[in-house]
Design goal:
single chain, alpha/beta, OB fold (Dihydrolipoamide Acetyltransferase, E2P), Rossmann fold, 7-stranded parallel sheet, 6-stranded parallel sheet, 22 helices, binds adenosine-5'-diphosphate, binds magnesium ion
Length: 688
C-alpha cells in the first residue's frame, strides 16, 4: 500500500465515505494518517469519587445506584441523571436531551466517566458531572483501569465521528505502511528524535504525556526542518548564482526621481534605500524583505529600486496582489516618471486578450522598461528580455512558489525585493521569509495626524453616521467596511449591499455613495474605485477588498460594521486606509459583541496604532489558528508545529538544516523528500 493511494483503497471506505472525507481535505492514505488529533482526552488517571475536586476535570468510575429523568425549562430540556457510587462517595452524572440512554444506564451497571466536577445542587456532600466529555458502560467483569489511556479527539463530523476516526487510525497504524525516513539518519540521531513510525503511532494513541510530547517533537521538527532546508537552499542558490545582476552606483535617473518626490525620505527610508542599493550593486542576487507598517512609505523605495535597474539597462517588475493596487502603483509611477525616458507598462488578467498579447510582446522585446501588474506577470507566456529586479508588494498575499516564479522570468537571476506590511513575530519571519535579509521601516513619515479610534455599540449608529455626513459636507470622504458573510452562516448580519442601500436611501440621501465588493466585475470595481479617488464618490461602502494599499488622502473617516468579526491585523490594515492626508482622521468600530475576547481586542485597537503590538495581541487573544487563518501568509501548512510555542524547536530545526546544507550525503537524502512533500513550494529548487 502506497501512501499516495486514494483513501477508498482502504477496506470499509466506499465512495460515500470517501466523498465525506474529501470534504475534510482527506484524499489519500497519507492525508488520513496526518489528520492529527485536534486535542486529547486525558483519561490516564482514575480518581475515586471521594477524592474528586470541584472545578477540576477528572475520570472516575462507579455503579449506577438510581436513575431519574425530568423535563425542565421553557425549552423542554430532558435531563437524565444517574447517581453512581464507588464506596468512597456519590456522583450525579447528567445527560441533556438523551433520554434514550435510560435503557443503557440501568441500576447495577458500571460507568466509566470523564468530565468537569462540580458540587451537586441539592445532593448533600455529593459531586455532579454535567459537562461530560465522555462516558463508557463497563462490561460485567471489566476493571475500570483497563479503559485508562489518552484518547485522541479528531475534528470529526456527524457522520464521520470520533469512533470512526479512532477505528480507522488503529487499522491504518497496524498496516505495513511504507513510512520511509524523511530525515537524514545523522539528524535523527543528533537531535534525539523518536523514529517516524513510532511517532505516528504515538501522536494518535499516546501511552502517556511523555510519549505524546516525544511524538509531537519528532513530527514538528520534521516539518520545520524540511521547510528550513527548502528556504536555505533557495538562499544558497541565490548566493551562488554566477548569473546575478550587478548594478552600478545610482546615477542620474535615480537622482532625478529623488528630486521630483514631493517629500524627502525619512531616516528609516534612507537607511533601507542604502541597504537596497548596496545589495543591488553586488553581483550576488539581492534577496531582501522590507517590513514596514501600513503607510510607512514602502512604495517609493520600490520605485527607486526599479528606476535603478532601468538606469542600468535592465527591466524591472512589480507584482501586486490585486488589480486595484497594481493600477494604483501604475498610475502613481507614470505620474512621477512623466517626461523621463522610462517606459512603464501594465499587465493584468483583465486586459483584453489583444492588449495582453501586445504587452507580453513588448516585455519580451524590451520595449517597456518597467512593468507593474498582478499574478498575470508570472504566467507561462510572460518572458522578460532582461529582468534585473523583481518586486512583490504585500508579500503576505503570495506564496514562496509565486515569489520564485517571478524571479525565473529572466535569463539572469534578478535581484529580488519583497515588501510586506504584515507585522509578524520573529518566529514567523524565520519560517515564512527564512531565505531573505530583512530591512525595517520603523517610523511613519512625519506630519501624519494620528487616527483616533473609538468602539461604539450599534445603538449609536445614527449619531455616528450623522457625524460622517457632516464631515462629508465639509469636503472629506469616508469608508464604511462590512464583514464578508459566509453562505453557511445563520447569524443575521447585513451584507455590504444591504448597508449600502440602507445608507444611501437614508442618512446619506443626496450624497454620492459607492459600493465595492469582491463579486463585482473588474470593470465595475475599477470604475467605483476611480470615482472614489477622484472624489466623485464621497462615501464608499466596501468589504475587505479595500484592505491593501489603497491610497486616498482625502478620506479621513472609516466606520467598520461588526468590527468584532475581523482580526486585529486586518482591522489595522483597514484603518491604514485613513490618516493618509493632513486631516484629522477617525475610525469607529461598531460592535455589540459582549464576549470578553472581542471587547478586549477592540479595546486594544482603540488604544494603539502599533502594528507589531496588535499582531502580538491578536495572536495572544485568538491563538495562532485563527490568526494565521485570516492572514494569507504563503506559508506551507504546518500540521504539527506551532510557530509560536515551538520557537526553540524551530531554531534547532534551522540549525540542523544549516548543517545539512554543508553535508552532501544528507542533502542528497533531503532533496527527493522536499520534491515530494513540498512540491508546490520547492519544486523549482529540487528539479535543478
Ligand atoms: P505603504 O508602506 O503602506 O505602501 P505608501 O508607500 O503607500 O505606504 O506611502 C503612504 C503615503 O505616505 C503615500 O501617500 C506616500 O506618498 C507618503 N510618503 C511616503 N514617504 C514619505 C515621506 N518620506 N514623507 C512624507 N510622505 C511620505
Ligand atoms: Mg503599499
Amino acid at each position: 500500500m502506497e501512501l499516495t493511494e486514494p483513501i477508498d483503497r482502504l477496506k470499509g471506505i466506499g465512495p460515500k465515505k470517501a466523498q465525506k472525507l474529501a470534504r475534510l481535505g482527506i484524499h489519500t492514505i497519507y492525508d488520513l494518517l496526518t489528520y492529527f488529533p485536534r486535542t486529547y482526552e486525558d483519561q490516564s488517571r482514575l480518581t475515586p469519587i471521594g477524592s474528586l475536586q470541584a472545578g477540576e476535570k477528572a475520570t472516575t468510575a462507579g455503579t449506577v445506584m438510581s436513575i431519574r429523568e425530568k423535563v425542565a425549562g421553557t425549552r423542554r430540556l430532558n435531563i437524565l441523571t444517574a447517581l453512581i457510587g464507588d464506596g468512597t462517595g456519590f456522583l450525579q452524572v447528567s445527560w441533556f436531551n438523551q433520554g434514550f440512554l435510560k435503557k443503557e444506564l440501568q441500576p447495577g451497571r458500571r460507568l466509566f466517566v470523564t468530565g468537569r466536577v462540580e458540587y451537586a445542587y441539592g445532593g448533600q456532600g455529593q459531586f455532579a458531572m454535567s459537562q461530560l466529555s465522555s462516558y463508557q458502560v463497563l462490561s460485567e467483569r471489566e476493571e475500570p483501569e483497563s479503559r485508562l489511556g489518552i484518547l485522541p479527539v479528531y475534528a470529526a463530523t456527524k457522520s464521520l465521528n470520533q469512533s470512526f476516526f479512532r477505528r480507522e487510525m488503529k487499522t491504518l497504524l497496524a498496516a505495513p505502511l511504507p513510512l520511509r525516513g524523511v530525515l537524514p539518519p545523522a539528524v535523527e540521531r543528533a537531535y534525539g528524535l523518536m523514529p517516524r513510525r513510532d511517532a505516528f503511532a504515538a501522536i494518535h494513541f499516546p501511552k502517556d504525556a511523555g510519549a505524546l510530547a516525544a511524538a509531537r517533537k519528532r513530527l514538528a521538527f520534521e516539518e520545520l526542518y524540511l521547510i528550513q532546508c527548502g528556504l536555505l537552499l533557495l538562499k544558497k542558490r541565490a548566493r551562488e548564482a554566477k548569473r546575478g545582476v550587478r548594478h552600478l552606483a545610482s546615477g542620474k535617473l535615480v537622482q532625478q526621481v529623488l528630486a521630483r518626490l514631493p517629500f524627502t525620505l525619512t531616516d528609516d527610508q534612507a537607511q533601507v534605500w542604502q541597504e537596497i542599493s548596496r545589495d543591488m550593486e553586488r553581483p550576488v542576487p539581492m534577496r531582501r524583505l522590507i517590513q514596514g507598517d501600513v503607510g510607512s512609505g514602502k512604495t517609493v523605495l520600490a520605485l527607486l529600486a526599479l528606476v535603478k535597474t532601468v538606469e542600468n539597462g535592465f527591466q524591472g517588475a512589480l507584482m501586486a496582489p490585486t488589480e486595484i493596487l497594481a493600477r494604483q502603483h501604475y498610475d502613481s509611477f507614470q505620474h512621477l516618471l512623466e517626461g523621463m525616458p522610462i517606459r512603464v507598462g501594465f499587465l493584468s488578467g483583465h486586459l483584453t486578450p489583444k492588449q495582453r498579447q501586445e504587452m507580453i510582446a513588448r516585455i519580451a522585446a524590451h520595449e517597456v522598461d518597467l512593468v507593474v501588474g498582478t499574478h498575470a506577470l508570472i504566467e507561462e507566456t510572460v518572458q522578460f528580455a532582461s529582468l534585473g529586479l523583481a518586486i512583490t508588494d504585500e508579500q503576505h498575499r503570495f506564496g514562496i512558489a509565486q515569489r520564485a516564479a517571478l524571479e525565473k522570468k529572466g535569463t539572469l537571476l534578478p535581484d529580488m525585493l519583497v515588501m510586506t506590511a504584515t507585522p509578524i513575530p520573529r518566529t514567523m519571519t524565520l519560517t515564512v521569509y527564512g531565505d531573505l535579509d530583512v530591512s525595517q521601516i520603523r517610523h511613519l513619515p512625519p506630519g501624519r495626524q494620528p487616527i483616533r479610534t473609538f468602539v461604539r455599540g450599534t445603538d449609536r449608529r445614527p449619531l455616528i453616521y450623522r457625524y460622517v455626513r457632516e464631515q462629508i459636507e465639509q469636503g472629506r470622504q469616508a469608508y464604511v467596511v462590512c464583514p464578508l458573510i459566509e453562505m453557511n452562516e445563520f447569524v443575521e448580519i447585513p451584507s455590504a449591499e444591504e448597508v449600502y442601500e440602507e445608507l444611501r436611501h437614508g442618512i446619506f440621501r443626496g450624497i454620492p455613495c459607492g459600493l465595492l465588493h469582491g463579486r463585482m466585475k473588474q470593470q465595475e470595481k475599477e470604475a467605483v474605485m476611480r470615482d472614489f479617488y477622484e472624489n466623485r464618490i464621497k462615501l464608499l461602502v466596501a468589504t475587505t477588498v479595500i484592505e491593501v494599499g489603497v491610497n486616498v488622502p482625502n478620506a479621513s473617516l472609516m466606520v467598520i460594521e461588526h468590527a468584532d468579526r475581523f482580526g486585529l491585523a486586518q482591522l489595522h490594515q483597514l484603518r491604514g486606509r485613513i490618516g493618509r492626508g493632513s486631516y484629522r482622521s477617525y475610525c469607529i468600530l461598531v460592535s455589540d459583541s459582549r464576549t470578553e475576547t472581542a471587547k478586549e481586542r477592540l479595546a486594544v485597537m482603540a488604544e494603539t496604532a502599533d502594528g507589531f503590538r496588535l499582531a502580538e495581541e491578536d495572536l495572544r487573544l485568538r491563538g495562532p489558528g485563527q490568526f494565521f487563518g485570516s492572514m494569507q501568509h504563503g506559508l506551507p501548512d504546518l500540521k504539527v508545529a506551532d510557530v509560536l510555542k515551538d520557537m526553540d524547536l524551530l531554531l534547532a530545526a534551522r540549525r540542523a538544516a544549516q548543517e545539512t546544507l554543508g553535508r552532501q550525503e544528507d542533502l542528497s537524502f533531503v532533496l527527493p523528500v522536499l520534491a515530494v512533500q513540498y512540491k508546490e513550494q520547492f519544486l523549482h529548487i529540487t528539479d535543478t
